[in-house]
Amino acid sequence: MANNKNNLVYAWILPLAVLWSAFLLFQVQPLISKTILPWFGGSPTVWTTCMLFFQVVLFAGYLYAHLLATYVPKRWQGIIHAGLMIAALLLMPISPGDDWKPTADVWPPGYILLLLVTHLGLPYFLLAANGPLLQHWFSQLAPGKTPYRLYALSNIGSLAALLTYPFLVEPNWTLPTQSGAWGWGYAGFALLLIPIAIAIVRNQAGTQEACELPGDSLDEAVPGWKTLAAWLALPAFACVMLLATTNHVCQDMAVVPFLWVVPLSLYLLTFIFCFDGEGWYRRGWLGWMAIGSIVLISVLELLGGMLDIGWVAVSYFGAMFFVCMICHGELVRLKPSTRHLTLYYLMIAGGGALGGMFVSLVCPLIFSQYYEMPLSLIVAFALALCVTVSSLEKRLGSIPLWSMGLLFCGMLAMLSGQLRSFQSHYLESQRNFYGVLSIGEVPTNDGQSILAMYHGRIMHGFQYQAEAKRGEPTSYYARNTGVGLALARLPKQDGKRVGVVGLGAGTLAAYAREGDYYRFYEINDDVIEMANEHFTFLQDCQAEHDLVLGDARLSLEREPDQQFDLLVLDAFSGDAIPTHLLTREAFRIYQRHLAEGGVLAIHVSNKHLDLRPVVLGTCDEFDLETLYITTAPDAATQQTGSQWIIASKNHQFLSDDTMQSAATNLGPHMVYAKPWTDNFSNLLEVLR
């Protein structure tokens, strides 16, 4: 009877527990990250910092599993773990309340980590331990059977969680509902552990001899330092590739769960393929595929750098997948006997934590640009080269001349493309939680000196240095742009109250006149520092003005009504968009701060995304009439092409002849999109 119960546990209940635990572990990652994303300006680094937490706590969970399995008597292991899981139910629900919304003076990475530890630390820690711990118990209950395929099953559960989140969970349930459902799922898993714990206590056949697989040795020594170093370095580098690639793509688009899920899903697929069986990992062709994808990225970089987002995503995600396949395939080749199973997984988790620390904490301190991406590709090329050469030598006995020629040409192309990333023409660059900010000189045909501010590769304003033209509004904010015309044609010409979300170089201060009031909202203190140090728009501002440090939406949410005659939304980072500033809830806040007849000016210029359907759909829901005003780039006047949507309930203002003549017809095919909300934003519908 006892054996039958053990068979039921290891054949059905224990695999189900592995699947369920992994699903919960990865379902909570986009859930909690999206919950706190709007509190930190929608920065891509929010996800990177959350990933650091997940990796470090995963390591802590694996360490706990290793110590529990090594030093605690078998009969107590299940009881202790199940008891802690049930105790963690007292921390539900996991979503932080509004009182946790940050103020402007917090250090975002530290605050995010504190928030996550407080609300999710213990439940995530215990879920993280389940992977190696359940496999260890499987080896006790099912002697002679390999537990390593359960690791592939675990990653299938993780992948299912990631894929269902953006396509099923996010569109259909609010964040509070998701949090509550996750709590109930956690409670169900805690109950599922009870029969497993009972089976471990009752298992009388779990002697060391019975638990070893054929070929295992009870006296097998701990692997040498080279093997341990490989167990640590390979997953560390795979994690660096994952985070660097995610950062790179998010910088050019938007910080949304969909763009987190795709690379993380590919990363998990490499674990599934490599740990499911030896047939998936083929060193030869995977080495060539990794080399080819890295060369493709480098060639595309040489051809222009500013690429279509489809090419960016496919090329970078493809390279990341093949490199992670190599890392995890080599890791599986080094797997030990089940005697050292928990140590093996502990080192894997430790490597992931080290990779997360490097990208999230070390890189912003030592690099002024996102150099971890080209550095990772150079190291990845070297790794793929070693694997390919080793495979050729093993299969053919030597390296054919044609292979040497191809590899050499690929190395030249790779180095030419990636080393370009280290060439900087900027006068100054600073990197912090919100990205890379740079100051550079812009060459002109007429020899006039121009200084520009860049966020990533996107210009965020510039200023003529000649005294006569220093006060001229430029770039996206020139006098014939949507925002320039709106400021010129406002019904209230004296004593205007203007709010600006996103400071940039401070260009809009050039429109201010005595008696006006301008209020600038800026989340990045480096922007404020550089705007004051390198540009004079703020110094020359004739109106009373204030600078509010912190996320604009949180600041506006906390402030009394500002009665703005014009509120300008221009808070993009690079070409990425902070989606929380374009949601229905955000527009409700903007409406509260507008004076009667007030105007919204929304900057929708973007290389990869067409934001017009979303903005127009939201304006329509709030009964705001709109005008779409575009300007073409003009090299002679250094004018940047721009797209603005001007929205207001003031029909007389929008009917002004000057505004009407500047407006662009949207055409009959423009379809308004469903307004985005804090719970849902569909990036796919706005891809160009």
From TrEMBL:
This is Spermidine synthase. GO terms for biological process: polyamine biosynthetic process. Signal peptide: none annotated. The keyword Iron does not apply. Keywords: Membrane, Polyamine biosynthesis, Transmembrane, Transmembrane helix. The lineage of its organism: Bacteria, Pseudomonadati, Planctomycetota, Planctomycetia, Pirellulales. The chain crosses the membrane at residues 7-26, 46-64, 76-94, 106-129, 150-169, 181-201, 228-249, 255-273, 285-303, 309-331, 343-367, 373-392, 399-419. It comes from Bremerella volcania.
